[in-house]
Design goal:
It is built from 8 helices and 12 strands. By secondary structure, the protein is α/β, with parallel strands linked by helices. The strands form 3 sheets. It has a 7-stranded parallel sheet with strand order 3-2-1-4-5-6-10, with helices on both faces. The chain has a 3-stranded mixed sheet with strand order 7-9-11. Helix 4 packs across helix 6. It is globular and about 55 Å long.
Length: 281
């Protein structure tokens, strides 16, 4: 199997899970944030300059395509049987109908900006390609070594009695999934060669305000909460709070039907805080 990217956050967990199942793994990335994997072949390269290999792979797992051109280059240049696209639930077209299902249309959702546009392009390229592929669509991902400043942002401010400024009224219903569950889902999909689109989301929804209070319980302090009405919806200011006040939740039945069990939100938040984030603040 070839893993494109794989150097941070969910990527190393995917590789570790595949290795534990005795898969032969090749990792292709720039080596700037390279994990020192054992029993893994490493190809150093920049995907935007081409893939320096003519080998055949049974599976390609693309963890870091952000434009349609990047996806097109990968499927045109590489020789493989099955392609796994690490997509996002942010590819869905903005809707007032929830929960979002795999049949909900993808398209423009302004709050996600260029990230949405690029990921939609990736999916459109795959749909037109004629290849055998699957796309996983995670909601907000949480876990140790998160390169998005999410858990640490909230926990550190609670711990240090600094106010957290929630966008709008902080009542949007959102959903999370833990990195280990995303990795487990990807591994299962590639092992079974299951084609199609798969939402990847925990079972619970929670408001932004509720999330902060839940993390306050874990840290052991009452959070100081403020609100910024001008940062509602598309006007979200990520420097003030990591999540937008925009409803964002999906069904997860397809992955559950094939055996994926999602970590309960409170349990996962506590485990990650105790094992990782507590040491950072």
């Amino acid at each position: 199997m070839l893993v494109i990217g794989g150097s941070r956050f969910v990527g190393p967990i995917i590789v570790e899970k595949l290795l534990a199942k005795n898969h032969k793994i090749t990792v292709f990335n720039r080596g700037k944030i390279q994990d020192k994997y054992k029993k893994v072949e490493f190809i150093k390269g920049d995907r935007n300059k081409g893939f320096d290999t003519d080998r055949h792979f049974d599976v390609v797992i693309d963890t870091c395509a952000y434009t349609g051109q990047q996806t097109k280059s990968a499927i045109d240049s590489l020789d493989f049987d099955f392609f796994m696209n690490f997509g996002t639930a942010a590819s869905y077209k903005k809707s007032e109908i929830f929960p979002l299902t795999e049949d909900s249309p993808i398209g423009d959702w302004p709050v996600w900006g260029d990230y949405n546009k690029g990921k939609v392009e990736c999916e459109n390229v795959l749909e037109k390609s004629g290849i055998s592929f699957a796309t996983i669509r995670p909601v907000y991902i949480l876990g140790p070594k998160n390169y998005c400043d999410r858990e640490n942002f909230i926990c550190s401010r609670i711990k240090n009695n600094k106010p957290l400024t929630l966008p709008g009224n902080g009542q949007a219903l959102v959903q999370f999934v833990f990195a280990k569950d995303v990795a487990e889902s990807i591994v299962l999909l590639v092992e079974k060669r299951l084609e199609g689109n798969f939402n990847c989301a925990g079972n619970e929804t929670i408001t932004l305000k509720g999330l902060v209070h839940e993390m306050g319980k874990i840290v052991g302090k009452e959070p100081v909460i403020k609100f910024n009405a001008s940062a509602d919806g598309e006007n979200h200011k990520e420097s003030e709070f990591p999540f937008a006040n925009e409803n964002f939740f999906c069904t997860n039945n397809k992955l559950k039907r094939i055996g994926i069990k999602f970590t309960p939100l409170a349990k996962g938040l506590k485990e990650d805080y105790e094992s990782y984030y507590k040491k950072l603040i």
